[in-house]
Every structure is written in C-alpha cells, then in structure tokens.
Amino acid sequence: MKYKVAAPFVELYSGVLALSKEQARDRIHNLKKVKSGYEIVKSVQFKRGEEFGYDAELTPQLAEVFGIPFEKEKNKKAAVVQTSAQTETLPGNPENIPLDAENGAVAE
User: Fold this and answer.
1) What pLDDT sits at residue 93?
2) Rounded distance, CA 36 to CA 52, Å?
3) DSSP label of 74
4) CA 23, CA 5: separation in Å to the nearest integer?
5) Could you give the CA distance from residue 78 to residue 6 in angstroms, rounded to a whole number?
6) Vertex 25, ends 21 and 30: CA angle to 5°?
7) pTM attached to this predicted model
8) What is the domain extent for residue 103?
9) Which of 7, 88, 5, 6 is nearest to 17 (CA)?
10) Are 50 and 5 in contact (CB under 8 A)?
11) Cα(60)–Cα(22) distance, rounded to whole angstroms?
12) 81 and 63 both lie in a single domain
C-alpha cells in the first residue's frame, strides 16, 4: 500500500518498500533488491511529505505517522469471546447462573 509521511519523519526497520529510483538510490546501502521491491536490511528513514509503497503490518504508531486511522480488523471478534472463567459455576448452582470468578458471587 502507498503511504505519505505526515510526521516530521518515520524510521522503518522491516518490510518491503516500493520506491522511486531516487528514493532507492539514496537508501540502497540499507536495502536488498527483491522481486516485489526493496527489502529493508537496515533501518531507513523518510521525511515528511515523502510517498512510498510499504508492504508490512500497519501498527497504530505507523498509522499515526502516516496520518491515517488505525483499524484493528483481526481482533474485532476477540471482544465478544467469552471465557470459561467468566461463566464459572459452583456446585449447588442448579440454574447455572454465571458467577464472578474472583469471589464466587453471582455476577451482575
């Protein structure tokens, strides 16, 4: 995906970049040419306003640097997963009412 740096600079440590000839020439000592672009071997920096393609995981910090909203798609379902500790029941609880895992009281 193509990004534009919104922060004063960004330093990248891994991933594959799609760069212009000029961008690659200035950073070639830190890159390795691969089929899909340039793999980062040593950290590289880009200044505010520079545009480049970047194929790696977008973290919340990078999203901020690029000035785009961060969407955490992978863990949207994780918020609704219920664990056994949240539904623990004790003997003598025939209604199977969920209990608070810490003190055994009825969960509210």
Assistant:
1) 57
2) 13
3) T
4) 14
5) 31
6) 125
7) 0.63
8) 76-108
9) 5
10) yes
11) 28
12) no
Going residue by residue through the chain (108 aa), what tens digit of pLDDT does each one get? 899 999 999 999 999 999 999 999 999 999 999 999 999 999 999 999 999 999 988 889 999 999 998 876 554 444 444 444 444 555 565 555 555 555 555 545
State whether 38 and 14 are in the same domain: yes
From first CA to last CA, the distance across the chain in angstroms is 46
The total number of structural domains in the chain stands at: 2
Residues 16, 21, 26, CA angle at the centre, nearest 5°? 80
Q: Do residues 36 and 55 touch, judged by C-beta distance below 8 A?
A: yes
The reply to whether 7 and 40 lie within a common domain is yes
Give the three-class secondary structure for 20: coil
CA angle, 89 then 94 then 95, to 5°: 80
